[in-house]
Amino acid sequence: MLILNLITMNVLLLHPNDSVHSIAPGRFEPLSLETLAATIPKHEVQIMDLRIDRLSDLDRVIKSFEPKVIGLTVNNTIHVKNSWGIFEHLDRINHGAKIIVGGHHPTMLPADFRKTYVNAIFYGWAEKSFPAYIEALSKNDSFHAIQGIEILKMEKQSLRMKISGILKLLKYHTPVVI
Q1: Chain centroid to CA 91
Q2: Could you read off the pLDDT of 58-72 as tens digits, one per residue?
Q3: Sheet with 158-160: strands ordered across
Q4: Average pLDDT for residues 19-27, to the nearest whole number?
């Protein structure tokens, strides 16, 4: 009989609240978070859409759900400052979870998320890197072979991203977040 020693983890995925400067006409379902949740069916996942759910409920959810990973999607630059506030709040309440971020903005401007309270930045589509990260974390394995993530809060930062050859990103100009 084969017994797998896989630790099931609680994972909380967040969509940031709207900026006061947002001009979006409506709210769309956070399909990117739902897609990521579907990639880890052996783990418990909760999604909080802070455009609808109250930020004040976050502490209660964290206390009752006890996530080992809290992930935030930042698809729009207009959500960056709100995401920083969420990360700082999570850091203050000292929950012990790994904090990860992904989305369009972190992919293009990862320096905006190289903060002391962020453990990993996901680049590009995370349908493969996210479940690999969760699996490695649940088995207490190394993240070294996972492509498309940058691990922070370690002695050395390691970048596992293979985009060279597709685009020479250093030759492009990137906007500055104000």
Answers
A1: 14
A2: 999 999 999 999 999
A3: 44-49, 10-15, 69-73, 98-102, 120-122, 149-151, 158-160
A4: 67
* Each residue's pLDDT tens digit, 108-147: 999 999 998 899 999 999 999 999 999 999 999 999 899 9
Query: Alpha-carbon distance 76 to 154, whole Å?
Result: 27
Strand extents, DSSP E, 50-125: 69-73, 98-102, 120-122
Nearest Cα residue to 58 out of 117, 113, 15, 115: 15
Read off the pLDDT of residues 95-104 as tens digits, 9 standing for 90 and up: 789 999 999 9
> CB neighbours (10 Å) of residue 165?
6
Give the helix/strand (H/E) hosting 113.
none
Rounded-to-integer distance, Cα 82 and Cα 104, Å:
15
Among 93, 75, 96, smallest CA distance to 18 is for: 75
Which domains are assigned to the chain? 10-19+28-171 (3.40.50.280)
Least Cα distance to 76 among 98, 37, 106 occurs for 106
